[in-house]
Design brief:
By secondary structure, the chain is an alpha+beta fold. It has a domain of 77 residues. The protein is 41% helix and 22% strand. It has a three-stranded antiparallel beta sheet.
Length: 158
């Protein structure tokens, strides 16, 4: 009887070690989370007031980029530059939206011929970005984050 009781209790005692929970430190959890996060994508793109209600990410991004482009085009159209040769080129604007929602021109890539004909173009683009309406920053996991956009802007002048 004792031997049978001992044979029944022994496996239970050995199996109890498998039921122990392993403690994970908060640093390990943070490391695992940061490895699994995709830092190239945001949960919500930066938005203007007219784009704030759009929930689909691709539509929200399109609305944001279209609003920026339209604002820049409207500002450039007011400048009425005089050129000696017709221009049909693309300028690339690298625009950063800070986590506070402030737009900052990171850089502008433009052909040297366009810069030669329109030396004020860089200043005009920077001024047009400064005159953008209020921007709500991008959101990642409920926290405002900064984001950078590469935006093509067509430059046409005759």
């Amino acid at each position: 009887m004792r031997k049978t009781l001992l044979l029944l209790i022994f496996p239970i005692l050995v199996c109890c070690k498998n039921f122990e929970t392993k403690k994970i430190s908060s640093e390990e959890v943070l490391n695992q989370e940061s490895k699994s996060l995709n830092w190239r994508e945001v949960d919500e793109y930066p938005a203007f007031e007219n784009c704030k209600s759009i929930t689909d990410l691709t539509q929200a991004r399109s609305c944001f980029e279209a609003t920026v482009a339209n604002s820049i085009y409207a500002y450039l159209a007011k400048q009425q530059p005089i050129v000696t040769q017709s221009i049909d080129d693309t300028l690339f604007l690298y625009l950063e939206i800070s986590k506070s929602g402030k737009p900052v021109v990171d850089s502008i890539r433009v052909d040297s011929m366009v810069t030669y004909q329109l030396p004020e173009l860089d200043n005009w683009v920077r001024q047009s970005v400064d005159s953008l309406p209020k921007i709500y920053p991008a959101i990642k996991r409920g926290i405002p984050v900064s984001s950078v956009f590469k935006m093509p802007i067509l430059i046409k002048a005759e």
